[in-house]
User: Which sequence fits this backbone?
C-alpha cells in the first residue's frame, strides 16, 4: 500500500513539473522578480542582508516538501494544515516583528529629538547635529540613524535621506520627525525649541498609548480566552469522546459547520484586535 502511495505521489510530481515547464517562462520570472522585490524590501526594514533568490527558493521548497512529508506520515488533513501553516506563518511573523520594531522606534524618538535640540542649541548646524549622533543609540533607532548618516556621508542631501527614512518606516511619528527636520534644514528658525516641543508631545502620546495598553489588557486577555476556548474544548472532547467529535470531522454537514466556526472565530479575533489596537500603524 505504501509503495502504491509513493508511486502516485511521484507520478503526480512528474506531471506537475512537466506542466510547469510548459508555462510562460516570462511570467514565472516576473512573479519571481516581484516576490524577490517585496522580500528584499521586507528584509531591508530589519537591516538583514541575505541572498533573496535562495531564500525564496528555500521557502517554496519548504511549502512543497513539508506538506508532502506530512501527508505521507499523517494523512491528507495533516498535509493541508501544514500547507496552510507554511503559507500563512511568514506574513504573520513578519507583521508581528515589524510592529514590535515600530513600537520600539516610537519609544526612542523623544530621546533623539532632545539630543538634536541640545546640539542645535549649542550652535551646530542641522547636518552636523544629525551626523554627530552616529552610534549614539541602540537598535532599532540606532540602525535607522546610522543608515541616515551613511547616506549623508555618501553624498545625499539631508532631505533626501530623511525622505528615504520616512519611506522605510511609514508611521505617523516618523513622518512628524522627518517633516520637522526637513523644515528646519530648509528654513532655519528656532528649531531647537520646535524639536523640544515635538519630543514632549511624542512622549505624552507614548504615555497615552501605554495607559491604553494597560486599560485594555483585560479585554485582550478575554479575547484570547474566547478564541482558544472552543479549540481547547474540541481537543478535550476529542480525547474523551472521539465518537462525539466524529460527527464534525467525518460528515459533510459537520465539516461545513466546523469550517464556518473557524472562519467566524478568525473574524471575531480580527475585530477585537482592531478595536483594541492602540498603534498608529
Assistant:
Amino acid at each position: 500500500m505504501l509503495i502504491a502511495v509513493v508511486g502516485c505521489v511521484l507520478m503526480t510530481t512528474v506531471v506537475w513539473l512537466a506542466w510547469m515547464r510548459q508555462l510562460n517562462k516570462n511570467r514565472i520570472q516576473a512573479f519571481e522578480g516581484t516576490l524577490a522585490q517585496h522580500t528584499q524590501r521586507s528584509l531591508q526594514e530589519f537591516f538583514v542582508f541575505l541572498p533573496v533568490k535562495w531564500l525564496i527558493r528555500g521557502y517554496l521548497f519548504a511549502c512543497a516538501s513539508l506538506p508532502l512529508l506530512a501527508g505521507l506520515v499523517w494523512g491528507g488533513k495533516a498535509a493541508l494544515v501544514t500547507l496552510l501553516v507554511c503559507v500563512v506563518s511568514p506574513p504573520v511573523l513578519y507583521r508581528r516583528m515589524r510592529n514590535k520594531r515600530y513600537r520600539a522606534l516610537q519609544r526612542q524618538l523623544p530621546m533623539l529629538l532632545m539630543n538634536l535640540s541640545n546640539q542645535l542649541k549649542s550652535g551646530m548646524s542641522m547636518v552636523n547635529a544629525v551626523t554627530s549622533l552616529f552610534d549614539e543609540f541602540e537598535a532599532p533607532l540606532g540602525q535607522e540613524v546610522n543608515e541616515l548618516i551613511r547616506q549623508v556621508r555618501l553624498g545625499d542631501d539631508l532631505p533626501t535621506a530623511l525622505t528615504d527614512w520616512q519611506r522605510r518606516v511609514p508611521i505617523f511619528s516618523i513622518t512628524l520627525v522627518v517633516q520637522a527636520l526637513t523644515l528646519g534644514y530648509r528654513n532655519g528658525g528656532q528649531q531647537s525649541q520646535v524639536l523640544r516641543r515635538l519630543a514632549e508631545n511624542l512622549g505624552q502620546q507614548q504615555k497615552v498609548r501605554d495607559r491604553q495598553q494597560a486599560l485594555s489588557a483585560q479585554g485582550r486577555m478575554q479575547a484570547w480566552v474566547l478564541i482558544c476556548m472552543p479549540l481547547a474544548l474540541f481537543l478535550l472532547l476529542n480525547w474523551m469522546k472521539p465518537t462525539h467529535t466524529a460527527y464534525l470531522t467525518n460528515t459533510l454537514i459537520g465539516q461545513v459547520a466546523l469550517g464556518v466556526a473557524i472562519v467566524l472565530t478568525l473574524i471575531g479575533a480580527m475585530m477585537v484586535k482592531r478595536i483594541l489596537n492602540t498603534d498608529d500603524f
